[in-house]
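Practice set, problem 2.
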Amino acid sequence: MTNGYHGKILKIDLSNKKTEEIPINEEDVKKYFMGSGLSAKILSHWKDIENIEPLSPQSQLIFMAGLFTGTTIPASSKLSVCAKSPLTGIWNEATVGGHWPATFKFTGFDGMIITGKSEKPVYLCITEEKIEIRDASHLWAKDTYITGEILAKELGDDFKICTIGPSGENLTFFASIIFDPPISRVAARGGIGAVMGSKNLKAIAVKGKKIPNIANKELLKELLKAQIPKIKEFTVGLTNFGTSGGVETVEMYGDLPIKNWQLGSWKEGAKKIAGQAMQPLYLDRHYSCFSCPIRCAKIYKVPERNLYGHGPEYETIGMLGSNCLNDNPLDLIEANELCNKFGMDTISCGHLVSFAIEAFERGIITEKETGGLKLEWGGKSVVELVKMIGKREHIGDILALGVRRAALTIGKNAQELAVEVKGLEIPGHDPRAHVGMSLNYATAVRGGCHLEALTYFLDRGIPVEDLGYTVAPDSHRSDDKPQIVVNMQNYLSCFNPLGLCKFLFIGRVGPKIIAQWLNAVCGFDFTMDDVMRTGERLVNLKRMFDVRLGISRKDDVLPPRMFAGAKPDGKAKGVLADLGNMLYAYYNIRKWDEFGIPTKEKLRELGIP
């Protein structure tokens, strides 16, 4: 009997409409966990990956629930969607919460590998009893909200739905997958929705009641009885306002993206679009993902613009708000909802909007490219540009390629305005305000990703006592950051494979508690060191995936605006990271060679073939 998981993966070939079940080896679960961990093991065995395009029928799209997903572990609602990214051409994992991931696991499957391409649009209907590939011609070209409504009427409200929108269908390189619309939990980054669209797969509906076994229910009950109250205490700010409640604090640190990353301070604007200002006006209700005591999601209702859905999170506020000098809450909420309906990553989309406005301001693009629209900083241009990108009209057709390709296509030194790492637009945390993020962005396996280290949490005084971090480090100091980034990447790389929300970091859940949960749920005999070693293994495994695709030291760089353009004002005024020395120390700690490639000795030590 397996504990914590069911022991099988569903494989679907859309080209020939065949399905099969693949067993999961317990040793693989111990070695990689599940979620993005087991997915990395599967994709690393993908033959000829160097020559397979991300949007080709031969590409593999993996949905994999976390090891704890579907259990009573708090905030264990996550599922990872993994593939070779069309945006970056390297490793991608897009992780999502809500209720779809647990419901999928209740069908009796832990994961799903989708290959091939259907001749016509289809959707999947998966229950405990059967797997169906159904016609989706009536859903094609419809936005995610309408698709969710139609499928709810066809199948019943007890099914959970995930779907792509028009952006996934038209292969926008940063298209996302929307889960549980209009609540809109999102697998957002790296163009994962375009991979789904390239297979003519519109949606996946799931229903089930197969709850995974727990090895020691009494032990788990006792552990959670002691731990959940502490988690709720430390995350009360998220409970009250969600991530949008941190906007003014982030601005105070000089961390907020402002005017396409050109400025360091925007106090009055930040105040207008923070959760404390918007929530009293537009909050309809609070929302919680499966098995989560934090309840951070905020559902907004704006009758005057006929808007209803998930309110803007911090990253959305940063990228479609402050980075575009958009201090109009209504325009911000509308732009967020448009992204969710089209199925687009708000981080990438927001950066494309700010990039386009600055390019227009500098004469790099003109009204000829924008269809006559005069681009200006502020909400009106933001909303119109989001529509253009979603429909791939005018300049939106080029912007839909992502900022790296768009800048190369436009030319005229547009690359100077593009803020990305390895092709992935960086999120709303400035690496000049928290220099540890410079090193994390440069080395993160999917490109410009903040979630792989979250060192700015440490800088703000959130401790990880298990790792010895009890006092906030100097956020502008570079020399101590390599060891911190290594430790934090190893620790946090376990979260997606386990299905854990990273807000548990704020809830003071360290690797010791994670080891206790593993032992109670799965019957393992893990220590904190075992958890950290698994995290290190996954970092190296994913790095080797990227190495096969040509990634090395030459790619571990920051965009020009971040390494050579200091902020003119704010708390981070004049700060630039010493990335060269940090990288040198980081490679040595990791036992990677001078080109940033894991050595054979390190791979053997970690048990990586």
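Problem 2, part (b): a different protein.
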Amino acid sequence: MITRLTAISIRRRWVVIALWIIALVGVTVANGQFGGDWRGGGRLDGTDSQRAYDLLNEKMPSKTGDTASVVFQTTTGVTAKRVEIDSYLKKIKSIPGIASVTSPFASKGQISPEGTVAFAAVEFDPDVNLQTTANRMVELAPELRKAGVTTEFSGGWFTQGGLPATEIFGLLAAVVILLIAFGSVLAAGLPIVTAVIGIGIGLGSVGLWASVVDTPDFTVQVASMIGIGVGIDYALFIVTRFREARGRGKDVPNSIHEATATAGRAVVFAGITVMVSLLGMILMRLKFVNGLAIGSSTAVAVAVLAAITLLPALLSVVGSRIKPVVMTNSQDAGHHVSVWERWSRLLQRRPWQAAIAGLAVLVVLGAPTLAIRLGSADAGSLPKTQTNRLAYDMLAEGFTPGFAGPFLLVANTPTDNARAVLPSLIEQVRATPGIAFVTDAQPSADGTAAVFTAIATTSPQDEATGRLLKQLRAKVLPNASAGSGASVYVGGPTASGDDFATFVGARLPWFIGSVLVISFLLLLAMFRSILVPLKAVVLNLLSIGAAYGIMVAVFQWGWFGSIFGVGKGAPIEPWAPMMLFAIVFGLSMDYEVFLLSKIRERFDATGDNSNAVAEGVASTARVITAAAAIMVFVFGFFVFGSLREIKLVGLGLATAVFIDATIVRLVLVPATMELLGSRNWWMPTWVDRLVPNLSIEHEPPSRSPLVS
């Protein structure tokens, strides 16, 4: 199939190029007309917090809109500034999108015991885009601050910062790195052109997928990062092979044919492994990430198709002006030994030392992973310049850290007996150790439901708060409502975050295990070996574990937090290990396929395992290093983001790619393959008969019968 596609792409080069340009324009226009809306989050059906939300939505829909707090602090006491605060609250009540504002002077418990801190509770209209509303609230605050009232805001709409435009930085980094690595404008330019066209179509496809599948709003950034990475990787691999063929004296058409028949096959199967890893997220059964999995894998599929069709067409136009690369065999007289081959030979002389040292580094870096705690970080972990962090500190100082994440208790009270138990139920919640404050119940219009709020003495991200939540659900609420016919559910952001962490934590091992098994089977069919794919998945798992360990040390334990702008240690966001594993494992398998395909090709040609490993490393190290450098640069820009979640993703991805491209590819792979020797390629006969032959590298004929 690839041979036929190559032949068509060469013979109809201008048609192929035109079709890709038309596809780019067409998908972009279609996305503008029919693209769907993004989903910022999702529901977890069957969880206690979701049942609370559903009951509230049914009985008291006005209470289901987003909420926020405006926090006030004065040294002289907020009561002394009542006129100024009431004036401000009157102004924000008239802002479109605000359903209600509860003044601290009109409700019990909204002024701190010392009287220096107070908050106004704001309820937004449901199903309204509230960013403009939140911005207007902030714009009205300076006048109150001038009056001597420190004013800050707590709520999701007041989050400052966002995802940086890493695709621009990534492309600029790619241009510089490729020019340095290959010293040729054309050789460096073709991968960029191919990747840009592929990214454009891929991102347009993501928008179209959003119209039929729930797709989170950060999918575009994720898909663009992956698209840049794999698009450049795949084109680099093919262009490098093309230059080698030209260096052996082949003409342009047959050099293209050799590149696609060998490197092109590696690209196809590498793309399949990346897509398997990304689509594995569907196994998590999180509806709102399905669009992320499908959209990102679509971007990879477009990159693969561009590499085996658009790139050959472009090479047939400008290939004669690309400088060839003359590759010499390591046994040839006068052979110039590259730095990468010398490095590989050095490791092969001391394979045990290299393997033990490399594994020791991965194990040490990955050790903190054993202590990982999934959960949602509260505003106390934000930088101290963020209004949410300042509001958190003020509430914690005036009241209790638990004010930042209240429990919303929603009671179903269908009978008189159920309603009668509410006062004693609330008193039992108040008497529970760890509860600082409980509001009175607010009944629904028909009296069949009620809602009240409980505030913990500890912060939302504190482990004690999680234990308190479990105690409320397992003991306090069931015991207090037993026999009454009432049922009480605990919702709110803290409870929802705990439910999400529990849900993801229970399914994460299945997701990781499924991706590992499928990837192992694919590599088994590709390389006709048991040990090579087993070693590949184990080493990739260790490198990702090392990245997890660094994330835990920095973001959970707070090590070097000041360097990365992290406020304080906090749990690791539940979605982060899932997303990082899907992305990094896929990219890691990319590099693995590229390297092993070249080693297998040389082993099949010579039967000498040591030379095959050395020559495979020598011929692919520059490509893998350049590709990895681009990805580290792209992901590294996330560390400069203003939000903790952005920093976490950036550090995790950048370190994972760096570790994989250095310790794994350049140390552990050559060392372990030297130790295993010819056993690398051992495969039992009965397994060989059962597994389909998807061998990647086939030495092409000296001249393609389909290319003139």
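Answer key, part (b): The chain has 24 helices and nine strands. The beta strands are 67-73, 98-102, 117-124, 150-154, 407-412, 435-438, 442-443, 449-456, 487-491.
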